[in-house]
Prior knowledge:
The structure is a single chain. With 582 residues, the protein is of the alpha+beta class. It has helices at residues 2-12, 64-68, 82-85, 93-109, 116-123, 126-138, 163-171, 237-253, 279-284, 291-307, 311-314, 340-353, 370-375, 386-398, 404-420, 426-442, 464-483, 490-500, 502-523, 525-542, 552-570, 575-581, and strands at 20-25, 27-31, 37-42, 54-60, 80-81, 146-151, 183-184, 191-192, 200-201, 212-213, 255-257, 264-269, 317-326, 329-339. A four-stranded mixed β-sheet has the order 3-2-6-5. Strands 11-12-13-14 form a four-stranded antiparallel β-sheet. It has a two-stranded antiparallel sheet with strand order 1-4. The longest helix has 22 residues, at 502-523. It is elongated, with a radius of gyration of 32 Å.
Amino acid sequence: MLHELINYARREGLEVEPGFAPRDVRWAISVSSSGEFLGLLELGDTTARRNPGRRFLKAPDLIHGELIAGGVTKSHFLVETLGVVAGFDEPDEKRAAKRRYFIWLLRQASAVMPALTAAATVLEDEAAMSRLRLQLTEAKARPTDKATLSIGGEFPVERADWHDWWREFRAGLSARQSPSDKMLCFLTGEAVEPAATHPKISGLPGANAFGAPLIGFDKPAFESYGLEQSANAAMSEEMAKMYQAGLNDLIRRHSSRLGRLDVVVVHWYRSNVAVEDDPLAWLEESPDATEADARIRARKLVTAIREGTRPDLAGNTYYALSLSGNGGRVMVRDWMEGGFEELAGAVEAWFSDLEIVRPQGGGIAPPPRFFTLLSALVRDPKDVPAPLGAKLFRAAVRAEPIPFAAMAQALARARVDFIQGNTLNPARMGLLRAYFGRKQRMEKGVREMTETMQAGLTEDLANPAYQCGRLMAVLAAVQRAALGDVGADVIQRYYAAASSTPALVFGRLVRTAQFHLGKVKQEKPGLAWWYEERIADICTRIGTSMPATLTLEEQGLFALGYYQQQAALRAPKQDDTKEGEK
C-alpha cells in the first residue's frame, strides 16, 4: 500500500521535500510595505458554499516532533490558524505563546526577507489587531481557518527567498542521530536515519482538525525491541513525506465518503484512466454516468478488453483504500488492488445482482447508488457502522458475498415497511436478492434454473420460505378485493408471525381467505377463480407440510417472495388475467 502511494506521488510530480507541504489557505492579512494594516482578504472562490481557499504548493511545514522539540511552544511559519496569527479566539496561554513564536519567526526570517518585518510590526499593533478581529467576526471566519500574509500585494509564502533559511532553521530544531543509529528503510531497503515521527494526513472526517498520522507509535504498547516512536517502522523522512503527499492528494482529489459515515474511500490506477472509463467512479457516485447504464458500460469495457480493442486498460491495475479518522489516528479499514478487467466485471456483477422489480411492478427498479444503499439499511444514515460500510464496499469491488449483517439489517427495515404500510424501498430488496444470489454462487451443487432467483417473480423457485411469502401476498390481495381498506389488515396483524412461524399462522389465514373468496365470487367470479388458482399452485410448491419455523435467512426469502408476488399483482395485468376478472 505504501509503495503504491509513493508511486502515485512520483507519477503526479508532488512536492515531497521535508519541511514543505501544500496548504489550503482561506484568509490573508494584508499589510503595506511600510507596516500599515490594510485589511482582510478572502482567498479562493468566495462564491463557493464551502470555500477551501487558495492552495499554496510549497508552504513551510513542521511535523509534530519538531513542534514540541525542546519543550518550547512553537507555531508554523507563514501559514497558521487565525486563532494563532490574529489571536482570534478565547484567551488561551498556549495559543498566546504560539502567536509570540509566530511573530518571532517573522523577525528571524526578516534577515533574508526584510519585508517580513512590516508584517511582524502589524501583528504586534493591538489597534490594528482589534480592527482585524472585527473584520473577521463580520466575515464569519473561524479561529481554525488557515491564514497567511500579503505584504505590498505579494504573498511571502509564494516566494523562494526564505527557503534556504527555513531549511537551516528546521535542521536545528531537533538533534540528528549519528550514522551508527541508521536503520534499513521500510520502503527502500537503504540505510537511513529514520524519521522520529511521521507527517500527518489531513482531510479525514473523524480525525483531528490539524490531521492525524497514518503511522505512529505514541504509546509503549505500540513499541517493541526497545525502539522508540517511528523507529519501530523505520523510514526515511523523505519516504514518509512522499507517502503523506500522495495520500493527502488522493483524499483531496479522488475520494468519496461512504454516506454520512466517517469512512473515506480513495482510489486510483497504475496508469491514468479517463472518468468515463472508471468503474469505481460509477460505483461510488459518478457525476457523468447514471447507475442505470453503469452495468452496460462495465460489460462493454470487459468485452473490449477481452477482444483486444482496449489494450490500454487490459494491463492496468486499480487500488482502493478505505480510511477513517479516530481523533489522533488514521484507521485503515480496507486495502484492495487487482486487475482492471476484474474490477469492471465486479461492478457489472454488482449492478446485475442488485436488480429487483419495481414495488408497483412493470419493470426493473433503477439500481441505487452505493451510498443510498447504505442508508437504506438503517433509520438514520449516520447509524451505519463504519466496518459494515467498508465490508459492503469490498463486496461490491471484489464480487464477494454480501455480509450477513447487511442482509439482516435490510430485512429488518423491509419488515417494518411491510407491516406499517410504508413506501417500499427496492434497494433493500435488491440487497436481499444479491445476498442470496452470491451465496448460491459460492456453494457447490446448486442447480441453475429452479434454484436461481430472478429480479421479478420466480414462480418455480424450489424454496418453501419463498413460496410462503408469495402466499402471504396473495392472501392479502384476496382480503383487499373482498373488503377494501380495513385498516389493520392481514399484513399488519400477521406478517411478523407468518414470516417466522408459518405453520402456526397460515392454516387460519387460508381458512379465512375462503370467506373472502366467497364474497369476491359474488361480484367478480373470474377474479375469485384466478386467486384460487394462485393459492392452489403456491400451496403445491410449498409441499405437504408448512415449515414450522424459519431462520433469519429464510425470513429474507419470505420477504422476497412477498415483495415480488406483490409487485406481480400490482403490475399491469396480462390478457389471461383480465379475462379472469370479467
